[in-house]
Amino acid sequence: QVQLQESGPGLVKPSQTLSLTCTVSGASITTNYYYWSWIRQPPGKGLEWMGSIAYSGNTYSSPSLKSRTSISRDTSANQFTLQLSAVAPEDTAVYYCARGLDVAGDFGSWGQGTQVTVSS
After folding, report:
1. Distance CA 102, CA 104 (A)
2. What is the largest distance, in Å, between two alpha-carbon atoms of the chain?
3. Mean pLDDT calculated for residue range 5-16
4. Shortest CA distance to 6 belongs to which of 50, 46, 44?
5. How many CB atoms lie within 10 A of CB 119?
6. What's the pLDDT tens digit per position in 96-107?
7. pLDDT tens by residue, 28-63
8. Among 23, 86, 99, 120, whose Cα sits 20 to 30 Å from the Cα of 9?
């Protein structure tokens, strides 16, 4: 059974770069044909897909966040990472990693989520 676990700072200052890591167990992130996504949920709002990295290593980003988002992976550690630059208070959210069968959907497994607050 695949398990995903997010890790990273709970508090980030405005204009800094947020870096989150998702550690995967029970499955390889290079297994055909899965996509590994980052999704967030700001307080009082719905889920927002941010981007994903495919089993092949190809990356995809939401158009609204593309200029600030970078997703990479470490296959030896079976981890993938989100970097979000120039954060602002509106980036405050619970951040989730998830595995899906589509670039931006069909999620079957989720991490528990990690709260990130952007504040000075």
Report:
1. 5
2. 42
3. 97
4. 50
5. 9
6. 999 999 999 999
7. 999 999 999 999 999 999 999 999 999 999 999 999
8. 99
Residue with tokens 């981007």: 51
Query: What length does the chain have?
Result: 120
What single string gives the DSSP state of each residue in the chain?
Answer: --EEEEE--SEE-TTSPEEEEEEEESS-TTSTT-EEEEEEE-TTS--EEEEEEETTS-EEE-TTTTTTEEEEEETTTTEEEEEE-S--GGG-EEEEEEEEEETTEEEEEE---EEEEE--
User: Omega before 55 cis (within 30°)?
Assistant: no
Q: Which amino acid is at 31?
A: T
Long-range CB contact pairs, 51-57, < 8 A, 24+ = 51/82, 52/100, 52/103, 52/104, 53/29, 53/80, 54/103, 55/29, 55/30, 55/31
Nearest to 114 by CA among 46, 30, 18: 18
Distance CA 63, CA 66 (A): 5
